[in-house]
Amino acid sequence: MSMYTYGLLEPGCYYLIQEKQDQAVSLIKVMMESDHCMYVFHYDDQITTIWKRKTDAIYDIIECLSDAAVEAWEKHYNSSNEDVYNEEDEE
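^ thats the sequence. predicted structure below, dont judge the formating
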């Protein structure tokens, strides 16, 4: 399988990717691009931000999420985070 690069991704879109063959699938959103890099939000338990070179390798771009899929994910993600914050407030 050929490798993909961050340069193939479009700003403003959410993607399910596998950065390396032995890594889990990750959800990312490309926030912006410069001449040589991409500013990316990586969603896990918390959001992390990182700059990636457009030439940095991605093992697999699984899919670009549709607007409906993003909306459904955001509802779940936001409610999960609210539950975590509420649990911390109760302690």
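Residues 4-65 form one domain.
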